[in-house]
Design a protein that fits this description.
Keywords: DNA-binding, Nucleus, Transcription, Transcription regulation
Main location: nucleus
Number of helices: 2
Structural class: mainly beta
Number of domains: 1
Strand order of the largest sheet: 1-4-3-2-6-5
CATH architecture: Beta Barrel
Order of helices and strands: EHEEEHEE
Subcellular location: Nucleus
Distance between the termini: 26 Å
Domain TF-B3: 1-83
CATH topology: At1g16640 B3 domain
Oligomer: single chain
Shape: globular
Number of strands: 6
Strand content: 35-45%
GO molecular function, one term: DNA binding
Helix content: 10-25%
């Protein structure tokens, strides 16, 4: 489970989607359905589906991840390694 920053939760405030679609920014690797939950105190969490997305793109503890809300319950994701080098994938 991944807790998203408060700023992202505030963007979808009032909508509180039950699922979102994740994709790599600029990538053509498809959309990854991911379940979302809210804790009632303004925190938004990604759970079922997030670990598969992270594992498939070698995103691990210590990596820096940037989320951009694209609307329509879609997020594009950029991942950086421990040295802040942007991770590139076959689809980039």
């Amino acid at each position: 489970m991944l807790c998203l920053p408060q700023r992202i939760a505030s963007i979808v405030d009032g909508q509180e989607p039950h699922h979102v679609l994740m994709r790599l920014s600029g990538g053509a690797t498809g959309l990854w359905p991911t379940k979302v939950t809210f804790d009632g105190e303004g925190q938004m969490f990604l759970y079922k589906g997030w670990s598969c997305f992270a594992r498939s793109h070698a995103i691990d503890v210590g990596h820096f991840v940037v989320f951009k809300y694209d609307g329509y319950d879609e997020f594009s994701v950029k991942a950086f390694d421990e040295t802040m080098y942007r991770r590139h994938y076959h689809s980039d």
